[in-house]
Design goal:
Layout lengths: L10 H8 L1 H10 L2 E3 L11 H8 L9 E7 L5 E9 L9 H10 L4 E7 L9 H17 L2 E8 L4 E3 L7
Helix pairs in contact: 1-2
């Protein structure tokens, strides 16, 4: 990165000089996908969440995202947590909680796609969702839903009584 006067500043060195929090914030920017407005609407149903994320569907591999939402359930940020293979993706609850808490978020919705187009959650999906729910409770965060989706349909853990 070049700054005025022609001097070169390494972004990591500059971050270190400005403090540890900025260093962590730069790391999060790697995962941050976008500021998403969803037309300023509050997400009031699983279908609205599906409409907001279905453009992220990839037929080649699973990927997990989370939506940080404000007190009115409007999307503040959309984060890509991780990408996996055709039928698996690996991440931990801390992969969600860390960026959410650093940005000051308190409410979130977890989403991931199934390239097979079968949106039935696997046993691993159910166990992971339970871990995330338990962790969110311990940290005072609101875990609103987990959607498993394909390009045409979705499964809501909340609507099916699993959250």
């Amino acid at each position: 990165m070049y700054e005025g006067g022609g001097g070169y500043t390494d972004p990591w060195v500059q971050s270190y000089k400005e403090g540890n929090m900025l260093l962590v914030r730069k790391e999060i920017e790697i995962w941050e996908l976008s500021d998403v407005d969803h037309n300023g609407e509050s997400l009031t149903s699983p279908n609205m969440v599906f409409q907001a994320v279905k453009g992220e569907f990839c037929p080649l591999s699973e990927s997990m995202h989370f939506l940080a939402v404000d007190s009115q359930n409007k999307i503040m940020k959309k984060f890509l947590i991780c990408k996996g293979g055709y039928n698996t993706v690996y991440c931990t609850p801390s992969d969600i909680f860390r960026p959410l808490m650093i940005m000051g978020g308190r409410k979130f919705i977890l989403t991931h796609n199934h390239p097979s187009k079968d949106v039935t959650p696997s046993e691993e999906d159910i166990l992971f969702t339970k871990k995330v729910s338990k962790g969110a409770d311990l940290l005072g965060l609101q875990f609103l839903d987990h959607l498993v989706y394909s390009d045409e349909q979705f499964y809501s853990f909340k609507a099916n009584g699993l959250i």
